[in-house]
Amino acid sequence: MLLTGYLRDNQESVIERLKKKNFKQIELVSQAVEKDNERKKIQNQLDELLAQNNKLAEQIGTLMKSGLKEEGNVLKAETVALKEKSKELQSTLDECEKDLHDILVQIPNLPYELVPHGTTAEENEVVFSSGALPELPAEALPHWELCAKYDIIDFELGVKLTGAGFPVYKGKGAKLQRALINFFLEKAAEAGYLEVQPPILVNAQSGYGTGQLPDKEGQMYYVGMDEFYLIPTAEVPVTNIYRDVIIKAEDLPIKNTAYTPCFRREAGSYGKDVRGLNRLHQFDKVEIVQIQHPEKSYQTLEEMREYVAGLLNELQLPYRTLRLCGGDMSFASAMTYDMEVYSAAQKKWLEVSSVSNFESFQANRLKLRFREGNNKPALAHTLNGSALALPRIVAAILENNQTPQGIMIPEVLVKYTGFSIIN
RNA sequence: GGAGACUUGUCCGAGUGGUUGAAGGAGCAAGCCUGGAAAGUUUGUAUACGCGCAAGUGUAUCGAGGGUUCGAAUCCCUCAGUCUCCGCCA
Questions:
Q1: At A201, is the secondary structure helix, strand, or coil?
Q2: For position A226, what pLDDT does the model report?
Q3: From CA A222, how far away is CA A232, in angstroms rounded?
Q4: What's the pLDDT band for A194 if we cut at 50, 70, 90?
Q5: How confident is the model at residue A196 (pLDDT cuts 50, 70, 90)?
Q6: How far apart are the two ends of chain A, measured CA to CA in Å?
Q7: Interface predicted TM-score (ipTM)
Q8: What is the CATH number of domain A121-422?
Q9: Does A4-104 match A121-422 in CATH topology?
Q10: Is the CB of A28 under 7 A from strand B?
Q11: Which of A102, A260, A310, A411 makes a 20 to 30 Å CA pair with A83?
Q12: Domain covering A4-104 assigned CATH 1.20.1530 in the classification
């Protein structure tokens, strides 16, 4: 959520920048400013009334104390009309604030200056590519066939238990999952991230805090009986840890990592995009989150991008890094890098990480602030990235590392898996 | 799940209807003191939204939301959480 004060003072440049994000409803900006002015006016009036009432109440108090009941009752009569009016104003104020809020939550974050122009994924800027793509012999299999061949991931069984998109990992498949999770968590710990294990069900307030609600309500599984949502990413619970918190500037940056299963309804996805591990309803992911001083957040974004790249290097997977164009970025992001690995049998780039700086967009909703010395608290910047999402990493490992003898496990994982080949 | 007790500022803790945004203490910050430090001492120490160039000032906030009242941290209702006892159970 953007700050109304900022919208008011920078209307023109805000509109320019929103256009870069391919946002159509730019009239919302001026609507927000107008609503905010209205809000101020109403609040002024209401404050005035309440102040009068408070004064009268105080006077009545002293009169009653000194036994002047009559005079007190006279003043009491005066408060009746005041009270009624202020009640009325209060409800118009509530309504106005709600309207304002409804407008604000529809306005996406502003793109950072480095964000390229563009509306579709084709216009994303490739900022790094790890070189020549691996070529597999013609008889190479896509990962879903490898899964069946070695009986390590069973999609059919998942359908029986739950439905499509909920695979069952078996034997070395299950162990590979566990190995990846441990590898990622250990690397994150080495890089200074504090591991947390959050709930994977969250309340609506947390959903609002990080922006999944009201925007993407239909993308989350909802547990109606208790009004909880299954998390689509660990970002939600982990970032919400800091909701309504004021952090000391010297404690920044805050670095957290978490492994969680993630749940996404993926309504509207279909066809070959959802084949095998490419797109699941439930998957495992290790997430990294940082809360940083506004002046350092872009430096931190680069650091996080490099960190994720390091993981991919260690796994010896071919990858490229994209700087997303304005139109392809998420609602809340100011700048995003996507990391894609090449899955050689499918001959496809698969997104395995998305590293974003949200600047103060989430922090404003979360009321996540920091304080420098005795200054007033200011909104912090939030960043997060996948490090990494497992299924597509697994897909790429299976496909790229297949040999006639079996699937070779990347060197760095062997100490976690306890085996070096799936055969 | 049943019964009871409780939920106050960074922390501890007072406060059962009338200058209480909130006593007192601790912590923290600044000044004094000291060769330096400790101790001592003085002052300051919430957040949000308005108005104001500023000093300042108005309003709201004592778990959350509603209600009673001229006036609520204090009374009533609902919800959430914590603790104790019972029940159940990984």
A1: strand
A2: 81
A3: 11
A4: very high
A5: very high
A6: 51
A7: 0.85
A8: 3.30.930.10
A9: no
A10: no
A11: A102
A12: no
* A151-163 pLDDT per residue, tens: 999 999 999 999 9
Task: Note every long-range contact of A405-408, with CB atoms under 8 Å and residues 24 or more positions apart, other chains counting.
Answer: A406/A150, A407/A146, A407/A150
Tokens of A322: 């994209």
DSSP letter assigned to residue A250: G
Rg of chain A's alpha carbons, rounded to an integer? Answer: 27
> Is A186 near strand B, with its CB below 7 A from some atom of it?
no
pLDDT computed for residue A344 by the predictor: 93
Does residue A371 reach within 7 angstroms of strand B, measured from its CB?
yes
A61: nt with nearest C1' to CA: B18
Residue A67 pLDDT exceeds 80? no
Task: Please state whether strand B lies within 7 Å of residue A51 at its CB atom.
Answer: yes
The more confidently predicted of residues A132 and A13 is: A13
- pLDDT computed for residue A305 by the predictor: 97
In eight-state DSSP terms, residue A264 is: -
Determine the Cα–Cα distance for residues A406 and A120; give it in Å rounded to an integer. Answer: 38
Residues making up chain A, counted from first to last: 423
Q: Cα–Cα distances in Å, from A295 out to A256, A317, A370, A409, A416?
A: 20, 33, 13, 41, 38
Nucleotide nearest to A374 (CA to C1'): B29
**Cα A128 to Cα A112: distance, rounded to the nearest angstrom:** 19
- Label the pairing between strands A228-230 and A254-263: unpaired
A45-63 pLDDT, tens digit each: 999 999 999 999 988 888 8
pLDDT tops 80 at residue A271:
no
Q: The tokens 């909701």 sit on which residue?
A: A243
What is the token pair recorded at A253? 């940056």
Asked whether A418 and A166 are in contact (CB, 8 A), the reply is no
Instruction: Identify the DSSP state of A232.
Output: S
Q: For residues A384 and A257, give the distance between their C-alpha atoms in angstroms, rounded to a whole number.
A: 9
The pLDDT tens digits for A350-376 are 999 999 999 999 999 999 999 887 788
- Domain segments of chain A as ranges: 4-104, 121-422
CA of A42 vs C1' of B58, distance in Å? 14
DSSP assignments along A342-411, one per residue: EETTTTEEEEEEEEEE-TTHHHHHHT-EEE-TTSPPEEPEEEEEEEEEHHHHHHHHHHHTB-SS-EEPPH
